Each structure stands twice: as structure tokens, then as C-alpha cells.
Amino acid sequence: MKVTIHWNRIFGLLLAIIVVFIAIICFKLINKSNQFDHQDIGQCDMHEAQEIIDNLCELYSLGQVTGSQCSSLCNNNATIKLAQCLSLSDSKIVLLMSMNTSSYVVLKSKRRYFDRQHTDLLFHDPIVSIPSALKTFYDIINSTLEGHMGSSITNLTHEHLIRRLFRHDRIENSVILLEKFDDVIVKYNDYYEHNLALSLTTELNTLFSLMTQHEFLLSNYYRSKHELMPKILGWCGHTYLTEHLTPLNHPMIEEQLYSDTWIPKAWLTNRLLQLVDSFDNELHAPLHLCDFQLSNLGISENGNIKLLDSDMAYFDRLIPLYPPDKCRKHSDCSYFDCSGYCDKRTRRCHLKRRINNNLQVLCDKILTKLLKSETIPLRLHDVLLSYVKKCSSPPGRYKRSNELKVGASSRLLRLMQVMLDGELRSANITSTKFCMADESVERFEIERIVDKRYRNNQLEYLIKWRGYPDSQNTWEPSSNIEGEQEADLLAEYEAFNKHQQQKIMNSGSRPAMNTQSPNKRRNDEMINSGLKKRPLGVGNNMQSVHTPTGFERGFEAEKVLGATDSAGELMLLVKWRQSDEADLVPARIVNMRCPSLVIDFYEQHSFWKRLPTLNQST
């Protein structure tokens, strides 16, 4: 009997066995790699997390660390307790702490333990000279700010500098916050108290360990910008407590954002645009988010979107956009979402120069996925999608490079904001309310203090409300401005006002009663009373809801002349090309019919302002 050997089948079987074997090896290698990656970010072990807190409390009991929250963490009747370990690595710890059954805060630090490598100690021995120690500490603050903010503060006195960084009610030794540094020299130059020296050494070392942490420095320096960054609630040793934010990639939030419902998408898009606008214009310099993703953003209880993780947020000229060796391609000069440029002739990166911007990354990474075509209402569909496309892929290219996208235009941001504001107003949702929160109560937040006056022997402040135009600024009695954040805003306003008056006095001019610039006052007056000053045949019947507007009569809008409030709704005064008359039209309608005219009106009247630079005493 002749046996036939099917060599093709045997060869195929052997090949299949080899493929399976290789697949198993690759699977194991990938798993092993993933394990190492997971170890790098740190496995959260509750026992180890509790050890970190216990070690911190032991140092507190020995008098080696201090802080405004140490007693709440470490006393027998501690009110702040470990609830969950969120992240634990050699470079960062994030622990969820419970204050009661339903309230949580977050404990954070760049290091697990205090002074394991003697990096947290500014003074290794008890200080001998109090003035000399404080002078050293102030110099460290200035150099640290220069390293993290890209600018040093040369025109602030020592006492103003320390107050800019630390709240008075969280400092134990009042000597740090004396009214004038000269008073410290006079009082303590020839005076030494051992217990005070020990206490001051401990507190200065504690504050030094916090200052070297980028997230803490950024959040605490800009603590009045509580709508942008998490509030710092206090500290103990090298750890600090912040408010609890829910990450935007939380399953419950993602379920709504990626559903077919339009309003949650419109709300989040509008809030993200506001956040990008604020980081570009409201700090001393643009803040570049080099890791722009939903997991690094969080939402607070009152609906503010904030920067949850700022480890990879840099100011100008501080972005690490250069490789150790010569570059070969543009990506060699980039740092995650911050794109750099490689000069292929010299093989060198353009140092510390970003090509794209936050808005372009937001549109490219988030909005193109969030704003799906099928979920956008037809009235906005084509226009909004075209804006997102232009924003994510701007028409220009840096130095004619096909690989590098330039930054998106801020005008696109304004246009999208106007459209989305109209949508949210139509749905009776303010910009400060989250779509999943209780919408029955409207919340008002103070954005800044604009001016002050005395009326009937009572001090009043002119308040700019967040999410509302300048035309809706109101005078409020000082008794209505309460709370920690409001106190910070008042302090900033008074400091800036005092600085401006001092400049006027030094120049020999008489100080003006109103601290606003003449242009700003004229703009506000025109916005608030524009209806009375325009000779445009606007009669009383213009207010009637039965009178058809120019849009309904087929007219084309020529210009927006003013803004006002009517029965709780924002109205815009619109001039028509076909008529000498003007009509009051609801802003939500004008926003959709001619958004570019609305943008022009806002830009002409200084609705968006950049804050003074770091080198000004604000």
C-alpha cells in the first residue's frame, strides 16, 4: 500500500504552529511591557497610601513639618481621612480624602515622603538670624517664580510677594507676613528667641517644599482664578489639599457627552472654548496645555471646568521643545501636543517656540469627536462644522511645511462662542451651569472688581459678573462681597488701584476719581445708554413684541450699535442697511443670523481684556 505524503499540508501545519508560537511570545512581551508601564505610574495600594499619611503625621508630631491642615489630618479626632487611592508613583501621589459621608477633597504631592533626599529642606539647622532667613526665603520665591512662570517679580516688595503666594490665615508665624520687611530688621536684628527660630525654620522648610511643586505654585499663585484651577484648601508638610473635581472622562459624564443630546455637547464646547480663551488672555502670559485631553480636565460642583492636572502646562519659553541631539523631523522638536519646528538645514529646533496653539489642539483632539454631524441642529450644522474644521486644520502652514499646523485664529473661537451662547440662552442654561446639575437655581460668580464709589456714605463696588457682558455690570454694597475668593479679588483690585494712584502721584498729576480708563468709561457709557444717544428714529413701539424686526421684513443687518437687558433677556440694537431705523433684536437671533457683526461689536468695546503682566503689582 502506497503512502502519499502531502507536503503542502505538513508545511501549512508547521507554519501555523510557528505563527501561534510567535503570537504567544508577543502577547507575553506586551503584557510584561504593560506591567512595567503600570508600575511606572504607580499601583494604588491603600495600605501604602495610609503609610504615607502616617509618616507625615509622625513628622508633624515631632515638629518637623507644619501646615494649616495638619491637625485635621493627624489628630486623634481627625476630620480628614483616606477614602481612596487614585494614583501612587514616585513622581506623584493623588489620594481621595473624605471630610464626611458625602464631601471629599484631594491630597496631592510630587513626592511620597518629606525630605527623603534632603530636597525639601531650605534650612538644615535652626535659623540663627530671622531677617537673614526671611531674605533668603524671599529670594528663593523670586527665582522659583522665574523658573515656573517665565518671569521674575522685581517691582514687588518682599511682604507683597509673600502675600501673593500665601494666604495670611494659613501662615502660622506672623513674622513672615509683617507689614514691611524693614520692620523685621528693626525688631529682630538684635533679638533672638529660640522657640520662634525653631518654629520659623519648620514653617519655611514646609513652604519651600510646596513652592517647588509646579501644580501647587500655579494654583496658589492664581488662586483668585478659581474658575480655572482647583482651589488650594490648605497643606501639611509637602502635601496639599485641593477641592475635588470629577474628571471629564468619567463614565457618567461621557455617557451624556457622547449621546445624541445636543445641549450637553453645546455646554461643554462653550466651557472648553472659555477655558482656552482664559488661559490665553487672563494670566500674565499664555499658558500652553501640552497634554490636552478630557482626563486632565475636571468639573466642580458648581459646573466650572478646570485644569485638573497642570504638570504639563507651561508658560511661554518654558516648553521643553528641544531634543538632546540634532533633529531630523519636526516631531523631534515637539512635546506631546505642543508642536515645535525643526530647521532641516541646521538640524536644530527653534528653541522654546510653539507653532500650534491650545485652540487648534482643542478642535483637533476633542471637538471633532464631540461635535458629531448627526447631533448638531440643522440651523447651526454647516456653519459650526466649518468653523471646527478651520480651527482643527487652519489653512496656513508654518514656513510652508505640509506637516505643521499653525495656531487657530481667535476669531473662530469668538464666532463659535457667540453661536453656542445663543443656543444655551435659548435653552435657559447659563454659561456657569452644568447640564447635569440642578438648573433651577441660577448662579452668579464675580469675575473681577471694576471700580468703586461712595454713595449715601456706603462703599459700593462695580462688579463684572462671569458669563455676562459689561453692560450687565452692577454696583453692589461692600457687605454683599463675602467669601475667600471675593476677598482675594478685592485685595487685587485695591493693590492695583493703589499702584495706579501712586504712579499718578509720582507723575505730578491729580488722581482721577474713577479708576477706569477714559476709553473704557466711554465704552461702558455707550453700551449702557446707547439707545438714548443714537438718533435713529427708534420709537416706543420698538419695544413691542408685535412689531416685526428687520429680519422679518427682509432687511440685512449692517451693524450692532449697542446692548441692553430687557425682561431678563440680552437684546442687541441692530442698524439695517435698507433703513435709517434700528431695532432691538434678541441676542440669540442676532448670534445665529450674523455672528460676525456681534464679534465686531464686542471687540470694538473691549469685552475681552488681557490682565496686566507679572511685572505689575496686581
From TrEMBL:
Transmembrane segments: 12-30
Biased composition (Polar residues): 502-518
Gene Ontology cellular component annotations, sorted alphabetically: endoplasmic reticulum membrane; heterochromatin; nucleus
Region: Disordered, residue numbers: 502-525
Residue intervals of the Chromo domain: 444-505, 555-613
Membrane topology reported for the UniProt record: Single-pass type II membrane protein
CDD domains, per database record: CD_CSD (cd00024), CSD (cd00034)
Keywords: Disulfide bond, Endoplasmic reticulum, Membrane, Nucleus, Repeat, Signal-anchor, Transmembrane, Transmembrane helix
Domain of life: Eukaryota
Subcellular location: Endoplasmic reticulum membrane; Nucleus
Main localization, broad class: endoplasmic reticulum
SUPFAM superfamilies registered for this protein in UniProt: Chromo domain-like
InterPro entries noted in UniProt: Chromo-like_dom_sf (IPR016197), Chromo/chromo_shadow_dom (IPR000953), Chromo_domain (IPR023780), Chromo_shadow_dom (IPR008251), Chromodomain_CS (IPR023779), FAM69_kinase_dom (IPR022049), FAM69_N (IPR029244)
Stated family: Belongs to the DIPK family.
Protein name: Chromo domain-containing protein
